[in-house]
Fold:
Amino acid sequence: MLEGLTSLLLLGVLAAGGSELPAFSREAPRCEVDTPHCFGIDLHIVVEDDKPVQTSRWFARQISEANRLFASIDTTFELRSVEAVEAESAEIDTRLERDLLGRKRFTRGVIHVFVVRRLADVDIAGEEIRGVHWRDRGDTTRRWIILSSIGESRVLAHELGHFFGLRHSRYAVSIMNKTPRSSPPWKERRFAPEEVERMRAHMRRMLRTGALLHRPRPDRGLRISGG
Structure:
């Protein structure tokens, strides 16, 4: 199954002209066969001059960190597809641009992750942010994650926390706490026990409604374009 998926991805990304994109499917971690909960990620990454705005190794670290931290709810993630996004979307500055980035690409059952070169803070002029969990203002049931190329390795895990129902918190141990602090050390931070229970409940709701599906397979007619 994995060989077939990889072949499909490679054919699509090569046709799209993104010569570095096949490495994303090769290097991204996969769910283990006995993983209780495995959810697919559809990656949409901006390509400028035939070069993705971030590396395959960077994205593999993002998934690895998410898998490590989400082990608390017996959940892992794996890359289901890769799409090259047009260079015109490299800088996302407004709420409307966040809406339009994912609106036509959204599908239920998987987690859509967009990687752009620059993601502006829409609340503070001139500031950048590292990631956002975004709901389409035209239909808030449509939602996706946008990561900036400047994001460190836990940004995806943090935004997935929002995807799984969490808000920013004040738990010292939590990666959802944005307050600058030295304790506990960065490497010891995770989800707080209260957050783990909240994510479990939210995951059950998403599975019940079909917002997420276990191990979703890519559509055979999946089109991976170069933008």
Summary: Confidence is low (pLDDT under 50) at residues 1-17, 219-225. Residues 2-153 form one domain.
